[in-house]
Amino acid sequence: MKQGFIRQLDPKDGALVMAHILFAFFALLLGGIAGMLQSVVRGGMYTLPGGIGYYQLLTAHGILMAIVFTTYFIIGFLYSGIARTMGGALLPMTRRLGWAGFALMTGGGLVVLAMILLDKASVLYTFYAPMKAAPQFYFGLAFVVIGSWLSGFGIFYQYRDWRKTHRGKLSPLFGFMAVVTMLLWQIATIGVAIEVIVQLIPWSVGWTETVNVMLSRTLFWYFGHPLVYFWLLPTYICWYVIIPEIIGGKIYSDALARLSFILLLLFSIPVGFHHQLMEPGVSPLWKYIQVVLTFMVVIPSLMTAFSLFATFEQNGRLKGAKGLFGWLKVLPWKDVRFFAPFMGMLAFIPAGAGGIVNASNQMNAVVHNTLWVTGHFHLTVATSVALTFFGITYWLIPVITGRVLTKRVNKLGIIQTVLWLVGMLFMSGSMHTVGLLGSPRRTAYTTYQDHTDAILWMPYHVAMAIGGIILFVALVLMIINVVALLRAPKGETLYPLGKSSAPEEATPRFLERWGVWISLVVLLILFAYTIPVMDMLGPDTYGAPGYKTW
Amino acid sequence: MHIHRLEKVWLAIGIAMLFVFLGVIGISAFALGTQPPSEHHHMIDPTKVKEIAPFDQPGIHQVGRKEYEAVIISFAFGYTTGPKEQPVMKVPAGSTVHFTVTSTDVVHGFEIPGTNVNMMLVPGEVSQVTHTFKEKGEYLILCNEYCGIAHEAMMTKIIVE
């Protein structure tokens, strides 16, 4: 071990990053307990004690996993990367914004959690009106969103300062990607902020009698789809920027990586109707237009797939690998920092294909609101994204704490990844299959008065529960690994940042013309939404009063 | 910006397949008429559903030879599919049924497993879907959108004889 090493992150920045990462894993543990319990209840193997509701657990699981775990981890990871690549430390203002964001999100998040535990907000993480939760639930959500905006402003501030002090230079790839990620988040969350602050808060407090349901759903899904890209972009940052360094190679193309991020920014927002294909109130033409826009993300996805495997192959050939697939052999399979994210990449192939099925306009009728959809996002966010975030954790915590990943924890990490995959194969595999047979998502144990169709779904629900239990064991192992990382021996761990194989001049500067890209995003959003939303605001629409049905 | 020749080929094939696919679903939706349940068929005050036609007379009504309209009201946690004296929907095999459904309270779902009938019921809007039942059987109709504490019990049936 080298003595007197220099820490890769300023301890003050490390504290901010660590607060986010540890809170993320705390949420993951709570959400995992809820998820495991749900799977055994739905499998008909267990009945919840003490008046705990299935839907209460489901609300907690969704919010803790999809909102808290992801958002905290992402903000922690992005702050670590911008500190490392843009100036070596966070600016005081950035750090303050980061902590202010953390405080607001945590305060709001705890209020939301309290309302769920008190059974005053069993409305699931989509909180569809006119189900009406306690006002505190919506206030809490608003604080979470506003907090995340402050965290985003911190990243923009750091980036702007770097550009000012490095005139004419190309920004670091990590910094650029962090800006795109938070820009996507800020633009997307405007929708849910309007829904919560303008529609739901006044209605739940009692200032307004009724709520425009179609408008609230449209605003939610204006946010709800880009939310999944908000999980995916940081995952792509790891795949594009971190993984090449871990395997000892180079980034395939800096320019194409940036171009794919810009395309993802453009085509992930004006597409929310593909979550609303089976509902009234939107014309088939506008649904189809948004379906076409949805499918445009296939282009950056294909670019990403090409780039990643090109990196692997180029690197393998430089190391002397021969034959069509010889480069596979020289990849560091025994390094969890590579293995976990790589398994995430593989899972993304069927996951992405399933996503194409979901968005296929009228064909969505086959899978809409069935367990197929649940199986889909357990492959995307709970496998591709989660395994990548786990892979990041194995070097990020050592970087912050000035410790090293030991062989033992590395091995436990590999076991954790394999367990996770096996659990997911059972759970997501059965969800996909039984979903095609028609079993609905978000539904507690039922045999529908012993209807034959529903009885035949049962074996799959039991397989889901087996998967859920295996996943929970894997999740506990992940928490053990996090604790082990916090207590690992002292030493120097480098922040693995890949370098581009091409010179800086190869990246065209128009990719950083933010004014152009933001204008294009706004134009696309206005095009995709103006007419349908005007229609929803028309004079013949009826509002709905609120109901507490749980 | 340099793009490798193989990447150009890869993208060209991918993008071409994408547009063929979009063309296929577009033609099937707009030329062949297999559209998702859409539109404001008509809007309705969700608190007065039972007073407004056709929902003042829920149930299955014959509108032609082997053609029926099923007027259904959904509520937490069930469906009204007919008057008290004939609450169960029955049609002969080979019938085409036009479902006209709305909600009196929260958002519900309307799914018949084994068919392509799957739509959202949003208070204030009327949802419509058509299906031809070729085979005999007791078809399960279930709510596939979480609607509250007894959501899993929300179901009805249509009997095809």
From TrEMBL, chain B:
Positions of transmembrane segments: 9-32
Subcellular location: Cell envelope
Keyword terms of this UniProt record: Copper, Membrane, Metal-binding, Transmembrane, Transmembrane helix
GO cellular component: cell envelope; membrane
Annotated catalysed reactions: 4 Fe(II)-[cytochrome c] + O2 + 8 H(+)(in) = 4 Fe(III)-[cytochrome c] + 2 H2O + 4 H(+)(out)
The organism's place on the tree of life at top rank: Bacteria
GO molecular function, one term: cytochrome-c oxidase activity
Subcellular location, principal: other
Limits of the Cytochrome oxidase subunit II copper A binding domain: 65-161
Function description: Subunits I and II form the functional core of the enzyme complex. Electrons originating in cytochrome c are transferred via heme a and Cu(A) to the binuclear center formed by heme a3 and Cu(B).
Protein name per its UniProtKB record: Cytochrome aa3 subunit 2
